[in-house]
Amino acid sequence: MLTIGVFGVTCDIVRDMSRQFYNPSKAISYGAPLTAVISMRSYGKTYGFTKAAIKDWMRDKSQFIYVRRYDTELKTSAPKIFDDIADHDEFPGYEFKMQGYTGLVRKKTPDDSAKWEEICYCIPLSKQASYKGVAFPRVKKIIFDEYIRVLKTPPGYLRDDMGALFDLYKTISRDRENVHMYLLGNACDLTNPLFLFLGRELKGEPKDGFSWYRNKTVLVEYAKNQQFADEERQTVVGRLVDGTQYAGVMIDAKFANAGEEFIAAKPSRARYLYGFEWQGKRFGCWVDERNGYYFITRKLPKDAESPKYHLFALSAEDMRPNMYMIKRADPFIKTLQRLYTIGVCFFDSPATREQWLKMTGLIGYR
Question: What is the biggest distance separating any 2 CA atoms in the chain, rounded to whole angstroms?
């Protein structure tokens, strides 16, 4: 049984094995250190990767790590990791169980004498520092479930989400080349930490199918399946949400914040005014004096840090020589917010727009 959320409302659907669910084989075959799989809801990503990890164990006794962002999420999800596998008798000669945050497996025997063996460990990303120094020599797969959070759903991402992710990867892999991390998520939020980390390489929605980033160390699969989407529309929840704002995310794998409102290309005649830096992300402000439009982009001039321009640091961590701190930026940000509300401030991509709005909200501007 799979549990899905409809922006805060949960319901259960029974897996119909005749349907065309996600197959992770191709994503795994690329051998990327970090792979993100983004799709519609209920497509079976977690099921597919868990099944693949179990097959690994049966082949070479390798183990896997199951990750959620917070311990509160693991308390709910960890006890159910093998439920779907067991319900459909995927491995009829074996049985599985969870013992706390450790997954166990053994062969079925008439006398119930087979020894239970460890196959997986559950770790909350928020507590990854507690596992430094712990050895995981047999782990080959790290499965991060529900990586992308539903928009505006607290508690949100970690403050340094990617830093925690890389620390966890380092702790588990110890630089072994055969350890691969898989981030599984639904198309909810363009401003998730991975997309922000990829920066200008990925300014909006990823292209359909597979695409490489960061010198082929990060692979993103934007997995869409029209047949599955059509079948999903015939389910109870599918019929409920069809034609509403929820159908795009839940059925068609469309990012909820990927709309084209206030998106426009900056004309070449636009003049650069000033820039902002927030938690390592930069935004440049330009003006087209011919029509009075302003543009916010992720691309700044090469000499943006020179004294002839203003480059504002919006947090103490971003402060460097030749930059101005946040109080000096107040009137500039307020002006841009006012221009946005009257419809003359545009962005180079939906991701830039959402990052900018999130940043201004976090520092107290609405």
Answer: 84
Size of the chain in residues? 366
Taking phi over 0 as left and psi of -120 to 50 as alpha, with beta for the rest, 337 belongs to alpha
- Tens-place pLDDT, residues 125-156: 999 999 999 999 999 999 999 999 986 667 88
Nearest alpha-carbon partner for 3 in 81, 88, 97, 89 = 81
Distance separating alpha carbons of residues 12 and 59, to the nearest angstrom: 33
pLDDT digits (tens, 9 = 90+) for 341-366: 888 999 988 888 888 887 787 666 55
Using CA atoms, how far apart are residues 267 and 309, in angstroms rounded to an integer?
20
What's 266's DSSP letter? P
Helix (H), strand (E) at residue 229 = helix 226-232
Under DSSP, the state recorded for 124 is E
Q: How would you write 159-222 as a 3-class SS string?
A: CCHHHHHHHHHHHHHCCCCCCEEEEEEECCCCCCHHHHHHHHHCCCCCCCEEEEECCCCEEEEE
- pTM (2 decimals)? 0.76
For residue 321, give the DSSP letter: T
Peptide bond into 137 cis (omega under 30): no
For residues 65 and 135, give the distance between their C-alpha atoms in angstroms, rounded to a whole number: 12
Ordered DSSP codes for 48-114:
HHHHHHHHHHHHH--EEEEEESSHHHHHHHGGGTTHHHHHTTSSTTEEEEEETTEEEEEE--TTS-P
Q: How far apart are CA 282 and CA 121, in angstroms?
A: 38
